[in-house]
């Protein structure tokens, strides 16, 4: 009788599930990650100079997060956080470690994820999904255990190496472990025959067409708008003459450009155009209603080098700091999520959340079992407007470069500790509700919050041999 009762119960539960979720197929998931896109570089976040109508449309038809954060203030560790669902105190890659050199044939890649790493890709494969990563990888070069095809992705096309991605007219890209050469592109040239962003878009669109009949997970990691400033003429033309645009001479790194502001705006708008093409394809394939689309950035806007002028575009929206900093300008990024008929259109969330929440959220959407080792929480209740959304006690970052830094967000409070090479220095404290620009350190007035932040910083940090925080791992003894 027990097997019979179990069969009847299982049948009833499946039937109830079908009633609750009329769409029986698992939803497709597309996560688009821009590179160095500032929190305020989209129209839906207040941008006034750069036009982004297609991404703005996703926001108007979905939910926009105001207090969402990258995994780290630079590329590779932020992607490691996204892949593993572990924050910077636990994830394996905690800084950019280069393998090889800067020449085109000097070897390529960054510190690889170890073999056997549990990633969002491998978990989605286990949940029955076709998986692809198209774009910039940065977590393992050619013939390493970190290659995306060995880390949970059925298909990869793009840059394995972040240094190679500094040029949008590359001599080669990588496709499923094989090098793809591009004649007409010359190393370190400002222009060429093949623009990589367009190649990435075409590959992503083709892969979606080929897999439209199956549940799929697409991680589309565009290199735009990371420097160098390179974009075809048709994307710059709408911005010519709109403002003064003095040429950039190349003396602060990357390639020179005659109209750098038009180029930067054109790069963002070209990405926006291609996001629109992807959305149109979902409608053409009649899978739009069953596809979750997320859009974010891997860290805050770059500082004013290489011809980029985040001050001119107000890229950080008044936030302090930029890429490389654990202040808000280096970490706070856009997040927009659209799922027709599931997520209410035009809604806004002020919930503090971060990159390590992507893995449990995507697994939840797929109906897969949660991962016990993640630092994240599923954001699905918040996305769907339910009341039982779990909240973080805190969000945590550490970063061993740019002076060595730690940061904690606890509700409306943000604690920052810097210059950790020798000792665990003083903690700065900011009330983000009243001081989003982190201009007024109120640590002296709230010793209890400073003590709590110090406790959380210790609790969240697991020492790493590769990425030490000397002042935290081995603090100097107090002087008599």
Secondary-structure map:
Layout: H1 2-20, E1 28-34, H2 53-60, E2 63-69, H3 75-84, H4 120-126, E3 130-136, E4 155-159, E5 172-175, E6 178-181, H5 196-210, E7 216-221, H6 233-236, H7 260-284, E8 291-297, H8 328-331, E9 332-338, E10 347-349, E11 353-354, H9 358-366, H10 380-384, E12 395-399, E13 405-410, E14 413-418, E15 428-431, H11 447-460, H12 470-473
Parallel strand pairs: 1-7, 1-8, 2-10, 2-11, 3-4, 3-7
Antiparallel strand pairs: 2-9, 4-5, 5-6, 8-9, 12-13, 13-14, 14-15
- In CATH, the homologous superfamily of the largest domain goes by the name Alkaline Phosphatase, subunit A
Quickly name the level 1 CATH class of the largest domain.
Alpha Beta
What level of helicity do the residues show?
25-40%
Mean pLDDT: 93
Name the helix and strand elements from N-terminus to C-terminus, one letter apiece: HEHEHHEEEEHEHHEHEEEHHEEEEHH
End-to-end span in angstroms? 75 Å
Tertiary shape: globular
Structural class: alpha/beta
Specify the biggest β-sheet. Answer: 11 strands, mixed
What value does the Rg take, in angstroms? 22 Å
For the record, the count of structural domains works out to 2
Characterization of this structure:
The chain is α/β, with parallel strands linked by helices and 480 residues long. The protein folds into two domains: 24-384, 3-Layer(aba) Sandwich (Alkaline Phosphatase, subunit A); 395-473, 2-Layer Sandwich (Arylsulfatase, C-terminal domain). It has helices spanning 2-20, 53-60, 75-84, 120-126, 196-210, 233-236, 260-284, 328-331, 358-366, 380-384, 447-460, 470-473, and strands at residues 28-34, 63-69, 130-136, 155-159, 172-175, 178-181, 216-221, 291-297, 332-338, 347-349, 353-354, 395-399, 405-410, 413-418, 428-431. The strands form two sheets. Strands 1, 2, 3, 4, 5, 6, 7, 8, 9, 10 and 11 form an eleven-stranded mixed β-sheet that branches. The chain has a four-stranded antiparallel β-sheet with strand order 12-13-14-15, with helices on one face. A hairpin with a 2-residue loop joins strand 5 and strand 6. The longest helix has 25 residues, at 260-284. The protein starts with a helix and ends in a 7-residue tail after the last helix.
């Amino acid at each position: 009788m027990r097997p019979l009762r179990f069969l009847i119960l299982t049948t009833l539960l499946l039937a109830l599930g079908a009633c609750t979720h009329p769409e029986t197929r698992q939803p497709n998931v597309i996560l688009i990650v821009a590179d160095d896109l500032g929190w305020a570089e989209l129209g839906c976040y207040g941008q006034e100079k750069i036009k982004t109508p297609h991404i703005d449309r996703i926001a108007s038809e979905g939910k926009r997060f105001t207090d969402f954060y990258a995994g780290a203030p630079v590329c590779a560790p932020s992607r490691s956080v996204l892949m593993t669902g572990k924050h910077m105190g636990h994830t394996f890659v905690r800084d950019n470690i280069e393998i090889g050199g800067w020449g085109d044939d000097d070897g390529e890649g960054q510190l690889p994820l170890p073999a056997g790493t549990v990633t969002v890709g491998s978990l989605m494969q286990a949940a029955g999904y076709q998986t692809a990563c198209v774009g910039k990888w940065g977590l393992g070069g050619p013939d390493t255990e970190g290659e995306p095809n060995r880390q949970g992705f059925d298909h990869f096309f793009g840059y394995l190496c972040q240094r190679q991605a500094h040029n949008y007219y590359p001599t080669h890209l990588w496709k499923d472990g094989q090098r793809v050469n591009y004649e007409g592109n010359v190393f370190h040239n400002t222009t060429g025959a093949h623009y990589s962003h367009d190649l990435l878009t075409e590959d992503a669109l083709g892969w979606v067409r080929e897999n439209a009949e199956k549940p799929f997970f697409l991680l589309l990691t565009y290199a735009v708008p990371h420097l160098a400033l390179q974009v075809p003429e048709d994307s710059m033309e709408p911005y010519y003459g709109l403002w003064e645009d003095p040429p950039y001479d190349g003396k602060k790194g990357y390639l020179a450009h005659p109209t750098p502001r038009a180029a930067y705006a054109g790069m963002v708008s070209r990405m926006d155009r291609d996001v629109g093409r992807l959305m149109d394809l979902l409608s053409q394939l009649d899978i739009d209603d069953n596809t979750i689309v997320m859009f974010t950035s891997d860290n805050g806007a770059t500082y004013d080098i290489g011809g980029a002028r985040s001050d001119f575009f107000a890229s950080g929206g008044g936030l302090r700091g930029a890429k490389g900093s654990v202040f808000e300008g280096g970490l706070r990024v856009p997040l927009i999520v659209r799922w027709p008929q599931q997520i209410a259109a035009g809604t806004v969330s002020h919930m503090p959340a971060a990159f390590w929440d992507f893995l449990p959220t995507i697994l939840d959407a797929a109906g897969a079992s949660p991962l016990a080792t993640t630092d994240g929480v599923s954001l699905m209740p918040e996305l769907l407007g339910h009341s039982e959304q779990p909240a973080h006690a805190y969000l945590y970052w550490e970063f061993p470069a740019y002076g060595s830094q730690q940061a904690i967000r606890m509700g409306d409070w943000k604690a920052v500790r810097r210059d950790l090479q020798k000792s665990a220095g003083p903690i700065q404290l900011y009330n983000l509700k009243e001081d989003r620009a982190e201009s007024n350190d109120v640590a002296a007035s709230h010793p209890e919050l400073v003590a709590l932040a110090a406790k959380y910083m210790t609790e969240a940090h697991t020492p790493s041999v590769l990425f030490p925080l000397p002042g935290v791992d081995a603090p100097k003894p107090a002087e008599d």
